[in-house]
Design goal:
alpha/beta, Rossmann fold, N-terminal domain of TfIIb, 2 domains, seven-stranded mixed β-sheet, four-stranded antiparallel β-sheet, globular, binds S-adenosylmethionine
């Protein structure tokens, strides 16, 4: 899993995700307690879109490059450079988020389970864990035919997706061209992903202690169907 080069253009190409989807977090603004733990925080896009104060925020990410952008933009906020799987903090939070496919990057169901345990244990009673995942349907039906190209004056980003049926794994091959003094430099990196059936996910969440779980189709904002491509889970620590 690498964000070494994507980190350099991440905010330019991925900001759209938060522009389109911040409304799913509109409840955050009316929370009295605004404490938030951001698992896989990346470049800290949540901070700017949810207007999170430094005293309320802790972000965790294993990518030094992603975090260096976050720290440059938000020098007052607290960030931990480590794996989510090893994260342990004495503070408890009203909201834990793990946004934008981050959980799909974990390739074993036991790791998903561990993230749910970690989220549960870092929440205050009544707190909410919110995360999104793309579905098995999306991986199997959309990924084999996807290719996206985004460009700007100083970079070109090509994202090719594929699906390995034997390993049941989705692979994103990123090719990034960055303009340099002598022309264009090419960088390649890969991100591997899996998905789990949403019933399996719910069972893992229940095993971690979450009793109230709501699933929403990310694209429609309605109940999920067999053809849902991305699911947003709202889980409350009862
Ligand atoms: C798709 S990005 C999402 C970033 C951010 N949540 C957002 O909404 O823009 C996934 C992030 O998860 C991080 N990540 C992947 N595996 C991780 C791990 N084991 N521990 C911590 N962070 C991880 C990556 O470094 C990357 O920043």
């Amino acid at each position: 899993m690498s964000y070494r080069f994507l980190s350099q253009i991440y905010d330019d190409c991925k900001n759209d995700f938060w522009i389109k989807n911040s409304h799913f977090f509109s409840f955050y603004q009316s929370n009295q307690d605004k404490s938030i733990l951001d698992l896989g925080c990346g470049t800290g896009l949540s901070i700017q879109h949810l207007k999170i104060n430094p005293c309320d925020y802790i972000g965790v990410d294993c990518s030094l490059e992603m975090l260096s952008h976050a720290k440059n933009k938000f020098p007052e906020h607290s960030f931990y450079n480590q794996s989510i799987l090893d994260f342990h903090h004495p503070k408890r939070f009203q909201l834990v988020i793990c946004s934008f496919d981050t959980i799909n990057h974990f390739l074993r169901s036991s790791e998903w389970s561990k993230i749910f345990d970690i989220s549960f244990s870092h929440l205050k009673p009544g707190g909410t864990f919110v995360f999104d995942v793309f579905t098995e349907y999306d991986l199997k039906f959309n990924w084999p035919n996807q290719m996206n190209l985004v460009d700007s004056k100083n970079w070109v980003y090509i994202q090719r997706s594929s699906y390995d049926t034997d390993k049941e794994m989705g692979i994103i091959d990123n090719t990034i061209f960055l303009r340099s003094k002598n022309g264009w430099d090419r960088y390649d990196e890969q991100i591997r992903n899996i998905s789990l059936n949403s019933i399996v996910v719910e069972n893992l969440l229940r095993d971690s202690g979450f009793q109230q779980i709501q699933k929403i189709d990310f694209n429609t904002g309605k109940s999920t169907t067999k053809e849902t491509e991305r699911i947003l889970f709202y889980c409350i620590k009862g």
